[in-house]
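so the lab meeting is tmrw and i was supposed to have these ready like two days ago... anyway. pasting both below. for each one the top line is the aa sequence and the line under it is the structure tokens. i havent really looked at them closely yet so no promises
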Amino acid sequence: MKKRPPIVAIFGHIDHGKTTLLDTIQKTKITETEAGGITQKVSAYEIEYKNERITFIDTPGHEAFEKLREKGAKVADIGILVVAADEGVKQQTIESIELIKHNNLPFIVAINKIDKPNANPEKVKKDLSELGVIVEDWGGDVPCVNISALKGINIDELLDLILILAGLLDLKYEENKNGEGYILEATKDPKRGILAGCIVLNGTVKVGDYIVTSSAYGKIRFMEDSFGRPITKALPSTPVLIGGFESLPFAGEIFKIGTKNEIEKIKSELEDYELSFKKPIIVGKEEAELEIFLIIKADLIGSIEGIIKFLEKIASEKNLKFKIIKKDIGLVTIDDLKLAKEAGAFIISFNLKNPKSIHEEVKNLNLNLIEINVIYELEEIIEELIEIQKQQSKEKGRLEVLATFSKTANKKTIGGKVISGKISLNDKVLILKDEAIIGRGKVISLESNKIPVSEVTEGNLCGLIVNTKTDINVGDVLVVI
């Protein structure tokens, strides 16, 4: 048995400075590269301090990323609970405390932002004591240090506490054992194939080894450390990026190293994550007022978990039901668009740069593709989806505007094609631009082949006059309500 470095997970509320703390410790600029300045994945980083290695796991603070925080807690030896001195205990602080206690994780309280003029560390300690977290200088057994991650105040003191606690835990590993560890994240890289961010928990992992999870396997082609440098061997507590999986492993899976002949045996011994991930799920109550079909595509499996968690909250608050018919990582594909068309589903694309061809096909198929980079943008977008869904459930037909002719303050003469249902004389219509409602009107004149008619059905061209004050342009859509 050999001594191994501690794995430290950082917990706390959004914007309380978890990533900035890592940033200061590593002298890197992590937060500047994150959309919205928040951590939306589990990231692991290794540092050296006083000739000792320490591995840090940064866990997202937003309420949607509860499952990702659980991953951090599962693999950590020590937790750091970051609480802002100017804001005190918040909802995700409470959730983090519950998670730490549930996993029996030894932890240190880091009261951050003590450089702020309204900082009040003693109030933070009082609030924590009411939650059963009593720090040492209040007579408890939880180490506590006042820090400023931004200004670098007392960071060495915090690192010293980590090494002291790690020494008490007497962390060891078996050097000659086959390697095993934990998949923190997995993604598909268009140039390098399937990549998995992992933490080694025991034994040794080497380039050329066969790596196996319950859902995937592969031969390790290359490995990189947390700074992107190539390595050939990874020991326990090491965060490592592994390339070489034949198929996508799932975040949260245990991996093991074995021979090619042991692949099926190891897979059968491990918990099956793939089955539970791939099946369609319903979020919300069966008797909800409105059902919305969704396809979720994202950069990471952990991101999908976060989105689903956020949808659970929205469904509860707004009495909705979301039926998620597909969820997967990687760019939106033509198959996704076909499925969305067949099912009448909206597509959520998270932290992806979809190609121009996909955007063109979305327009051709009259689909709704929602592209976001920050989780809390989703709430406002869901509001829009609700309106669109309600409108679509009531609508009798749609017309795409192909030409505009004369216009006055209250009348607009246009030409178009009925793309669904029918449009009739005296129909009331909503005017949409890029699926956003920009106005309302009434059809006061309708012609087909320059002959007045009472209605025009799907697939046919027509000319019409709409009584509205809203400007109507080519590409806009009229929805009959």
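ok protien two:
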Amino acid sequence: MIKNIIFDMGNVLIDFNPMQYVGELHLANKEEEEKVFKAAYLNFKSIYMDYGRITEEEFVNHVVEGIGEEYRDKIKELIINWHKYLTPIKGMEEIVKELKDKGYKIYLLSNAGFSQHDYWDRIPASKYFDGKVVSCDVGEVKPFREIYEALYKKFNIKPEESFFIDDLIINVFGANRTGMEGYVFTGSAEDLRKELVRRGIL
């Protein structure tokens, strides 16, 4: 029997659209947009933020070393201030609320850096959550087993009594390997609702 619903954050509760954020910088041309995008989002060291090994500010410094000091404000906008453009995915707050009203425990399991704690309350659905595990805090990331087990241990929940919703199939597969069923979110709250109804959760 399912008692707990576990949500991912980016592209599940909120849109995460890096190219949109780059567009908000109003750079000179497409070539410059591509340069900044690659420097900020295709940088191998970005995963260190999710692991909690570096802060967002330290990552900005690393990127600026490679792209040039003149881009510091732009890179900072993308890495530290991107959440000012935060857009909730339509219909997801309502689904979370409905699940909460039905008595399910609601948790977040997200790969994210330390600043997640600063903007989490700005996500409308967050007020219905019973708790969260963010990768930077535990030093583990999805899809590896350790982060799912950190969730189970922290909240004393069982994987077989939990259901996971993530936009990446590899993360859902990671959950499956620990005994938790899941659903690959496609961007449609209505499709998710249909799946939850099909499974008898809603």
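from a quick look at the 2nd one: The first helix runs from residue 18 to 23. Strands lie at 4-7, 14-15, 87-88, 105-110, 131-134, 162-166, 181-184. will dig more after coffe
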